[in-house]
Specification:
five-stranded mixed β-sheet, alpha+beta, 11 helices
């Protein structure tokens, strides 16, 4: 399989011992890339096509999800694991409060929630949207170099959308439930920002984990009104604009929550 490597760091092309495997428009991949740039660690970015991480990942970095990373012969899988390793490779700026600081456990807990609870929500909603409009998927690749020509990949988009939905267990009912839950999740994030746990001048690991998910959610035009004006929306400032968009009207209007529940 011919996988095209793209070497990027801070806008400069250079070789590095760090190789990062990413998927187009992947929010956990975006979180790790911002962390690498914050620490000014040069890296090579290898772009995989959707679902190819299942085949390529075990051989290249030891897992079936993305992001994956290789540092010399070391293999790492998942954004949280990679961020812990980045803090070891380059301690400053740190992604966590120092040991002994009570905020450290809180940031780790918020990061875990962002990974284990929030992260899958936009995946399922997007997968269902792509079933309705497979062509929207292509826009998320932006100008990323891909392993195959776009004209070759385009006819496979409907089948890819179905396979992604199967992998992520995305259906109409799950997407509707995710949309109904979103205001409650945003309330939780807003409360963390009010408490000073998130949203600082220098992002921590939880900011990156959660902010990348909000950035991806904003690519769904139907979902943007649920986010706009909230404190949680400010977490997207740590990230460059994300390419790709799912047009308005792709998600049925009756799926959208009518009001935001109070914070539990």
């Amino acid at each position: 399989m011919n996988i095209l490597p793209v070497t990027t760091t801070g806008g400069l092309i250079e070789m590095s011992k760090i190789k990062l495997y990413v998927l187009p428009a992947s929010h956990p991949c975006a979180a790790v890339e911002v962390a690498l740039d914050l620490k000014q660690l040069p890296y090579r970015r290898v772009v995989l096509l959707p679902l190819m991480q299942v085949l390529v990942g075990p051989l290249r970095y030891g897992g079936t999800t993305a992001p994956g990373m290789r540092v010399d012969g070391e293999r790492l899988v998942g954004s949280r694991t990679i961020m812990r390793r980045l803090d070891e490779l380059q301690p400053q700026p740190t992604l966590l409060p120092p040991p002994g600081d009570p905020a450290r456990a809180q940031v780790l807990d918020a990061e875990r929630w962002g990974d284990e609870v929030l992260q899958d929500l936009p995946r399922r909603i997007l997968d269902v949207a792509f079933l309705s409009d497979p062509g929207a998927m292509e826009s998320f690749a932006g100008d990323m170099p891909l392993p195959l020509p776009r004209a070759v990949l385009r006819p496979a988009l409907p089948a890819t959308a179905r396979l992604m939905a199967m992998k992520n267990k995305a259906r109409d009912d799950t997407a509707r439930a995710d949309l109904q839950a979103l205001p409650r999740y945003l309330d939780k994030i807003d409360a963390w920002i009010a408490d000073g746990l998130l949203g600082g001048e220098q992002p921590n690991a939880a900011d990156l984990q959660i902010g990348s998910t909000i950035r991806l959610l904003e690519t769904l035009v139907d979902v943007r009104p649920l986010i706009e004006g909230r404190p949680a929306a400010a977490l997207t400032r740590y990230f460059p604009p994300m390419v790709g968009e799912v047009p308005a009207g792709t998600l049925p209007a009756e799926w959208m929550p009518t009001s935001a529940p109070a914070v539990n």
